[in-house]
Amino acid sequence: MRTKLALAAAGAALLFAAVPSWAHHAFAAEFDAKKPVKLEGTVTKMEWINPHAWIHIDVKNADGSTTSWMVEGGTPNTLLRRGFTKDSLQAGTVVIVDGYQAKDGSNRANGRDITFADGRKLFLGNATGSEGAPDAGGDKK
Amino acid sequence: MMRCVSIAVLLLGAPAFGQTSPAKPSAAAKHWVAPRTPEGAPDLQGTWTNATITPFERPGTLSGETVLSPSEAATLEEQAAEARIDRPPAPGDTGSYNQLWFDRGTKVVGTRRSSLVIDPPDGRVPALTASAQKRQQDAATYARQHPADGPEDRSLAERCILWGTAGPPMVPGPYNNNYQIVQGPGYVVILVEMIHDARMIPTDGRPHLPKSIHQWMGDPRGHWEGDTLVVETTNFTDKTRFRGSDENLRIVERFRRVDANTIDYQFTMDDPTAFTRPWSASIPMTRSDGPLFEYACSEGNYAMTDILSGARAEEQRTQ
């Protein structure tokens, strides 16, 4: 009879086995773990492309100026199959991005965690309230 | 060996679509016969996914346990659901993006095997040969010294040339684990979503390409053994790697549709210059609504330019 501990360890092994090592490697090569950023900005454009979608946002700085940032997401194919589309994130929507800045110092960051202003998860708690988009937890398979 | 394993999979319970515990094999399941294409071949067509949370290799903590109990499987599925909750990454790790962008699957395979590797019996990939280990070590040393001089220093996936899980063998990855099978006279075609690769598999008995010709995904040849499509692939490049394989890889895949919603997919890796012995894995393919979407990898590969410019910026900083 397997102990709970053995299963817990197996479960932990699952998490690390699931993501190929090169996937993390790519982000570590692109973004700087020593440069965390927290951005609040307005969506201006959504690049619904592969290999990674990019969300363009305008961030208002303390001095009133505006800086444009690009935020990297995942593959849109997954979201399309969940019922979300490019229009699920409309221009003008406010989002909060928790991520890390690009190593080359440009205004790019990975969207490690993207939420709406009220804390709801991106797409899941869709600001436009689009119908027909299922929760991510509702796997059809 | 393959035949015994195929029968064992069938008897353990035809993997039932969407269930965590294998259904007891009914008389209908044992005698299920795949419909035929107009050419009379078993029909494997449709959109399929191989996403699963069953680990590729059996974790050390489960050694000796070939099949999980229903409650162990349920526990692993709960843990996988827990893992899909967003959490901050560890210090020094940039993380990537929110969990909803991933699609690793939610369930163990229908047979509840504790690993996708089925041979050797310990469920783990055999050791690499000494020369393959040296090749890996040399590559790792080079990569540390030249992480990003140019695109050629980056992985085939980052270069949008070949995805690591596209194969053959075709194994699940972090997302887009989708395949579309189309059959016609003399061909079976497998469209692999990552990276929109079409495996054109002739079934007309023609010989392989000459040994001097090497292809990223090898050169496949298919034939039918009863209701099983057997595909042998050779002629790989010396840059194609799967778990350490090299250009001498000969992989045999077997596809057998066991019910309306499941293809029993198994493969054997034979590469004597890379692995100390052949090894095999079994990964069911489950019918999926799909559709596949075009993964036009090169259309917006900003990550590649960012990685290179990031490396140049770091060099400036250390000068």
Task: Indicate the topology.
The complex is a heterodimer of chains A (141) and B (319).
Chain A lengths: L3 H15 L2 H10 E17 L6 E7 L5 E7 L3 H6 L12 E9 L5 E3 L2 E4 L25
Parallel strand pairs in A: 3-5
Antiparallel strand pairs in A: 1-2, 1-4, 2-3, 4-6
Chain B lengths: L1 H10 L15 H4 L15 E4 L20 H14 L33 E3 L10 H16 L32 E7 L2 E6 L4 E6 L16 E7 L2 E7 L15 E10 L2 E9 L8 E4 L2 E3 L14 H16 L2
Antiparallel strand pairs in B: 1-3, 1-11, 2-10, 3-4, 4-5, 6-7, 7-8, 8-9, 9-10, 9-11
What does this protein look like?
The complex is a heterodimer of chains A (141) and B (319). Chain A is α+β, with helices and mostly antiparallel strands. Chain A has a single domain, classed as Beta Barrel (OB fold (Dihydrolipoamide Acetyltransferase, E2P)). In chain A, 22% of the residues lie in helices and 33% in strands. A 6-stranded mixed beta sheet of chain A has the order 5-3-2-1-4-6. The longest helix of chain A is centred in the N-terminal third of the chain and has 15 residues. Chain A is globular and about 55 Å long. Chain A starts with a helix and ends in a 25-residue tail after the last strand. The C terminus of chain A is likely disordered. Chain B has one domain. The longest helix of chain B is centred in the middle third of the chain and has 16 residues. At the A-B interface, helix 1, helix 2, strand 1, helix 3 and strand 4 of A face helix 3 and helix 5 of B.
